[in-house]
Design goal:
The structure is a homodimer of 419-residue chains. With 419 residues, the first copy, chain A, is α/β, with parallel strands linked by helices. Chain A has 13 helices and 15 strands. Chain A folds into 2 domains: 124 residues, Alpha-Beta Complex (Aspartate Aminotransferase, domain 1); 247 residues, Aspartate Aminotransferase, domain 2, CATH 3.40.640. In chain A, helix 4 packs across helix 9 and helix 11 runs parallel beside helix 13. Chains A, B: InterPro entries: Aminotrans_3, Aminotrans_3_PPA_site, PyrdxlP-dep_Trfase, PyrdxlP-dep_Trfase_major, PyrdxlP-dep_Trfase_small.
Chain lengths: 419, 419
C-alpha cells in the first residue's frame, strides 16, 4: 500500500546536503525500512512554540499539520505539570490515585451517556481494547469500518484499517463499507456490509468510525451515519466512535466529533491530542457494555493512566478550557476555510471540514504532492490525504491564530501562482 | 481467570476508613470492573525516591516490587531530561532527529546480532509488532509460549498469554509448551508443541519467551531453552526474546536475559524500565527478518520514539551505566537471596532468581497471600506470582541498597515469626 506519497524517497539521498544525507543513512541503518520521513527534502526541528516549529538555524516553520500538540508545541502549563509530577511520583493504577479518579470523572462529564474509563497509552491500544470489549459484550465478531479507514497499528486494528493494509489485508471478520468516498450513501453502504457479514455467518460486534473520517478525506457531517448506527444496533452490534482525530474540540463545536450527530456511542476511543504529545489514550464504554469484559478479564496497562500521564492530560484539558480553544478552532478555522475558498483557483475543487480540520480537494495527486512540497519549501507544514492523495489535510494545533491564517493563505496563494 | 490473588476485594470496601472507601467507590464508578487494586487494604502514594514510596502522611514504604522505575523513583537526571526536552520540543519520527538515531544506535550496540529498532509505547505493542514481523518473515502463523506466559494485552498478545486468558482463551494458532512449571524438560515441551502445530497444519512463526519466565515463577537459567530455540528454528520459526521483565540489567549480568544463554535472538522486545516509567518500548529485529514486513507495510506509532520519550530513555540508560546499577543488582540481589535463604524457615521451599529478580517459593497460596499482605502492613511492598500464587516476587528498583536489603530481611523475618 506504499504508493506515491509525500514521503521522502530514500533513493534520492545523495541530493541532500552532507550532514542531512549522513543522518538519513544512519537512520535507515538503525530504524529500518518501515519508517517514513515527510517531504522530498526531510526536516529536522529542534524547538516548538504554539503553532511554530524551528530548525537548528532558527528558521520558523508554520505548523498546519500536527494535531497532537493541540494546545501548542511545548505548552508551558503542560510542561510544568509533567515536570512537577515526574519529580514527585510516577506510578501505576494498582495503587489508589485521587488525581486519576478525578480526571476520569472529568472526562466522563463530557460524555452524553453513562460510562467508565480505561486508560491506555495509544489510540491503537484504545481501539484494540474497544474491539475486545465489543466482542465480549455482543458475542459477535464482525466489525464494519469505512472504505479507507485507519484505526491503528496493532495486529487486530491493522486488520480493520484498509488504508494501511488494503482491502485484501483486512481481517476475515472485518468489512469495509463503500463510503463515504464513493457515491453510495453511507447508510446503504453499511447496510450492504451487514448483509455481507450475515451471508458469511458472522454476527456483527460493532461499527467503528473515525467521526471526522480523516483518512477518507474528512467528512465532519456525514449524511446517513445516524441511520447506519441504528441499523448496526438493530443487528445486535455496537457503535464505537473513534475520536482520536476529531476529539478534544478539533471540530470547533463540542468536545467530540460524534456530538454533531446527537448520537450516544456505546464506546468512545481517544488519543493523540489528549495530553499534548505525552503518550496517553483512553477508552470510555457504557457500564453495561464493559461489564462482560470486566467480569471475565483483568486488564493492566503498565504505563496507562500513570501519575505523569494523568498530570499531562489534566493540564491539557485545563488549557483547552481556559483558553477557549474549541471556540478558537471554530472562528479561526472558519476564517481559514473562507480564505482558501477566496483564492478562487480552479484547481481547488472543494474545501471541506469543520473547525481546524480542513480537507482541501485538489485536481489530482501529482499537483497535490507538488503543493505540499512547495509549501514545505516556503516553511508551511501540511500533508496530502484521502484515498487518492488528492486532499490537502490542514490540521494545526488549536492555538492557530489570525496571523497564522494570514501566513498560510499568503504562502498557499504564492504556491498556486507559481505552479 | 481472576482467582484468589493479592488484589483488593471490593466487597470489603466498608472496612476501609471513610476517605479511602469513598475514593475506592468513586474509582469503581469511574474506571469500571477490569481494574484491580493491590492488597487487602489499598495504598495511595504521593511521592517516591530511590526504592521508597511515601503516602500522604509521609510514611516510608520500601518498594521491593516495582521494576518500572528501575533507576529509582523520580530519578532527578531522568526527570530533568524529560522536563528540558518537553519544554523545547516533543515531535514524532516523520521528521529527522539526531537524538532518536543516536539512541537507536546505542541500543543496537548492546545486541549480539545486527538489528534495526522500531519504537512503540508499550511492551504489548512491541510484542504485537514482533508477531506481525515474525509472521511476515516466515510465512508461518504458529506461536509457542511457556505454560503460564504473559506477554501483554492487545487482542493478538492476550491470545498468547495463558496466564491472562487461560489455555482455553488462547488464539487458535498459539500453543503453550508444558514448561517450565512442570517436570517436563523445556526442550521436550517445546518439541511437543511443534508436533501439535504440525498435526494441526499450522506452520510455526516463532517461539516467544520472557527470558526470565516471570509469570511462570522466575527461571533465569532454564535448562533446555537453547535446544528449544534450535528446534523451532529447524522447523522454520524464529526466536523472540521478550525482555520486558529481565531487560536493562535486572538479572545483574549483562543488559538482557537472553545473554545468559549465548543465544542470538531473531527479535528482541523491551519495555517497562526502558525510560523509568515514561511510556517507551521497542522492538529490535535482524534486518533480514524485518525486511519483508518493512517492504510491504508502513508503520507509524504517533508517540513511539517521540522527542521526550527518547530523552527519557537516553537519560535512563545514562544512569544505569554511570551508577553501575547492573553490578549493583548482582551484588545486592545476591545478598538479598542469601539473606532469605538464611532465614531457614521450612515454609520457604526455594529461593530462585538472579540479580534483583527473585522468586521465593512458599508452601501454599494462602500462606503466600498472608505474607504479602502482612509485609504491606509492615511497609514493605512485594507481590505473589507464579501459576498457583505461591511465589513471592521480589523485583525492586535497581537502586536497592544494603539498608533496603536489611529492612526487607528484618520485616520478612518478623512476618514469618508471627505467621
Amino acid at each position: 500500500m506504499v504508493g506515491p506519497t509525500t514521503y521522502f524517497d530514500e533513493s534520492t539521498v545523495d541530493r541532500l546536503d552532507a550532514r542531512t544525507a549522513d543522518l538519513v543513512r544512519r537512520r535507515a541503518a538503525a530504524l529500518g525500512p518501515a519508517y517514513r520521513l515527510f517531504y522530498r527534502e526531510p526536516l529536522e526541528f529542534v524547538r516548538g512554540e504554539r503553532a511554530h516549529l524551528f530548525d537548528a538555524d532558527g528558521v520558523d516553520y508554520l505548523d498546519a499539520y500536527n494535531n497532537v500538540p493541540s494546545v501548542g508545541h511545548a505548552n508551558p502549563r503542560v510542561v510544568a505539570a509533567i515536570a512537577e509530577q515526574a519529580a514527585r511520583l510516577n506510578t501505576h493504577t494498582r495503587y489508589l490515585s485521587e488525581a486519576t479518579v478525578a480526571y476520569a470523572e472529568r472526562l466522563l462529564a463530557t460524555m452524553p451517556m453513562p460510562g467508565e474509563v480505561m486508560f491506555t497509552c495509544t489510540g491503537s491500544e484504545a481501539n484494540d481494547l474497544a474491539l475486545r470489549v465489543a466482542k465480549a459484550a455482543t458475542g459477535g465478531e464482525g466489525v464494519i469500518v469505512s472504505w479507507n479507514a485507519y484505526h491503528g497499528i496493532t495486529t487486530e486494528i491493522a486488520g480493520i484499517s484498509p488504508s494501511l493494509v488494503g482491502l485484501d489485508g483486512m481481517a476475515p471478520w472485518a468489512r469495509a463499507a463503500r463510503g463515504p468516498v464513493t457515491d453510495v450513501p453511507f447508510a446503504e453502504a453499511v447496510a450492504a456490509s451487514l448483509r455481507e457479514l450475515d451471508a458469511a455467518g458472522i454476527r456483527p460486534a460493532a461499527l467503528i468510525v473515525d467521526t471526522v473520517f480523516a483518512s477518507d478525506g474528512g467528512f465532519p457531517d456525514l449524511e446517513g451515519l445516524v441511520e447506519a448506527v441504528a441499523a448496526v444496533r438493530a443487528a445486535g452490534g455496537l457503535f464505537i466512535a473513534d475520536e482520536v482525530q476529531p476529539g478534544f474540540g478539533r471540530l470547533g463545536h463540542g468536545m467530540w466529533g460524534f456530538s454533531r450527530y446527537g448520537i450516544e456511542p456505546d464506546i468512545v476511543t481517544m488519543g493523540k491530542p489528549m495530553a499534548n504529545g505525552h503518550p496517553v489514550a483512553a477508552m470510555v464504554a457504557r457500564p453495561d457494555v464493559l461489564a462482560p469484559f470486566g467480569r471475565d478479564m483483568r486488564y493492566f496497562n503498565t504505563y496507562g493512566g500513570n501519575s505523569v500521564s494523568i498530570a499531562a492530560a489534566s493540564a491539557t484539558l485545563d488549557v483547552l478550557e481556559d483558553e477557549q480553544l474549541i471556540e478558537n478552532a471554530r472562528i479561526v478555522g472558519g476564517r481559514l476555510a473562507d480564505g482558501i475558498r477566496g483564492l478562487s483557483d480552479e484547481r481547488i475543487l472543494a474545501v471541506r471540514g469543520a473547525g481546524l480540520f480542513l480537507g482541501v480537494d485538489l485536481v489530482d495527486e501529482a499537483f497535490t504532492l507538488d503543493v505540499v512540497n512547495a509549501l514545505r519549501d516556503r516553511r508551511v507544514l501540511l500533508a496530502a490525504s484521502g484515498p487518492g492523495n488528492t486532499t490537502l489535510k490542514i490540521r494545526p494545533p488549536l492555538v492557530f491564530d489570525d496571523a497564522d491564517v494570514d501566513r498560510l493563505l499568503t504562502e498557499l496563494a504564492a504556491v498556486l501562482a507559481s505552479s
